[in-house]
Design brief:
By secondary structure, this protein is of the alpha+beta class. It is built from four helices and eight strands, in the order ααββαββββββα. It has a single domain, classed as Protein of unknown function DUF192 (Jelly Rolls).
Length: about 150
């Protein structure tokens, strides 16, 4: 009888735990992250960490919503170069160090229409671990500067 009471209680607790109403995670929740800027502005950024995905980045996209971006996460800090090969829109590229401080801002990087990626200029001279791409003009509009801390 004791085992039956124990099992009934365990089942009740299990079901009670399942009864909590929690919002199911969406695919966007799993593939994006909120980025908060010093002035309180928030955007939702796609998160890339696999080399193939980071190499493709924003290629072939015709637009980027004002409240969106793309966050590249490198395994280690270093000088991580980027280029605008096969991009269709100008971007601000924000390089962020391992402490989440802005290390470099490349404002208004234009798309590169060269036939080969090697013919495009590369960007990124500061040591960083993260890179955030946002619409051109975003950094100026939000008064971002070297040393500002972002949260994500």
């Amino acid at each position: 009888m004791r085992i039956q009471t124990f099992l009934a209680g365990a089942v009740f607790l299990l079901l009670a735990g399942c009864a909590k109403e929690e919002q199911a995670a969406t695919m966007e929740d799993l593939t994006t992250r909120e980025v908060k800027f010093p002035n309180g502005t928030k955007i939702r950024a796609e998160v890339l960490y696999k080399p193939f995905d980071m190499a493709r980045g924003m290629m072939f996209r015709d637009s980027l919503a004002a409240d969106r971006g793309m966050l590249f996460i490198n395994k280690t800090a270093g000088v991580h170069k980027s280029w605008m090969y096969n991009l269709r829109i100008p971007l601000d590229i924000i390089y962020i160090d391992q402490n989440l401080h802005i290390a470099e801002i490349v404002a208004n990087a234009p798309p590169c229409k060269a036939e080969k990626a090697s013919q495009c200029p590369s960007y990124g001279t500061a040591r960083s671990q993260f890179m955030l791409e946002v619409n051109a003009g975003f950094a100026a509009k939000h008064n971002l500067k070297i040393g500002d801390r972002l949260d994500f």
